Amino acid sequence: MNSRRALATALVIFLVLTCAAQPADDLQQTTDRLASSVLLGPSMTTLRELTDGFGGRLTGSPAYQAAAEWAAAKFGSFGIHSVRLESFEIPNGWQRRWAHGEMVAPLVRPLHLESVGWTPSTPEGGIQGEVVVIDDFSADHIKAQAAQINGHVVLLDTSKLFAQGVWKALPVLSASYAYLKDAGALGILQPDREKDNVLNAHDALWGAKMSPLPAFQLGLEDSKLIRRLLDARQSVSVKLEAQNKTSGATAVNNVIAEIRGTEHPEEWILIGAHLDSWDFGTGAQDNGAGAAMVLEAARAIAALGQPPRRSIRFALWGGEEQGLLGSFAYTQAHATELEKCVAVLNTDNGAGHPKGWKVEGRKDLMEAMAPISNTLLKALSGDDLSMEVTYDTDHGPFLLKGVPAFDLEVDMSHYMEIHHKSSDTFDKVDALNFKADAAVVAVTAYAIAEDARPIAPHLDHAAVGEILKKAGLDEFLKSVGVWNP
Ligand SMILES: [Zn+2]
Fold it and tell me: Which among 406, 412, 375 is positioned nearest to 393, based on CA atoms?
């Protein structure tokens, strides 16, 4: 090879290499700028405004509505002009006022309890009765026990039921409330599961439906004391009283904002998190952090001044804690344009150190996300891509429609210490982990929206059914009316 040919060959190789590498380098530079903006940005202030400013944000409550209006104004303050409140209806609004209870025999002592969410007030003066235990929740058993249940307070023993798995247990437990009312129960005591009589907020029924009976979640040690007394053949009487505020059918607003894409604005990816929370704490990790990540991603992408090829929608959902109601309503209201939804990114696992993304049972999503994890996210996050399939947060309704759905995976080793408890407050959020999470969300969204091709195809109904069946979710989802195999 003579020297001119060698030089020409080297030049060609150089050009080929630089041309091939150029887009990736550009994208890396852009997403690095994006990540820097998030890491140095005001997200902790945003989170504090949301949590300390509005407190717990029960779906349909005035606090939720005020937070939704605040969030819409936030998007606007980032220079995003396409901001909408999109409403859906829940069957009942509900707010906690107060609850108290005491054992009146054989001991006189206060009980650690609160109303189960979406349960009614007791009649004035409360209810008083002897306690009976139920550990079989079938209609037949409860009917057969009606003479023992009538005029009593029922303490639920769910240990056998939940041994069958949570997704099998929940529909059975929900249905039993109506059977217990028919059998003449005065009210329900549902033991909590953690020591120190700590309470974890939850509701009785899926879908913001009102429980037919007053029900109380009861501290673990209190419930064990009652069980020991009953086992020793002593009769236990309790007096329970609660006031809760209900508002019947109530409109709830999802908050939606959009940054238009430059080349394919009709195609969109969605970054979502639920804005509603439970009310014992102020919903900081669950899910103020996720909501603030979405707001921060929006701020940083808007501030970049360089929109990606496709549009990015930002969604803050209501009704997640009552059964993913806001995101489900969105997939119904926007059914005809879901085919243009390239991917959904959800964040609702707290603000632990970022580990990667859950790909919800799809190997093709794992392969498609791997290059992003291994390059653009490398300095921010672990590179885990989990195949776990869940219907526990707002990627779920999109998963049912076959949309490529990702759920942010973070270190959750301390999450359950505060989840749904009075301790879920701003002071539990580690700023650096939270900002790294937000940066992962922003960078991933930008990379998918900017890519020349959609990240993966949509799945058809049968393929989604296979994933749900394998995960043991299909029967449960059918029972709550969101899945039709
Ligand atoms: Zn949550």
Answer: 406
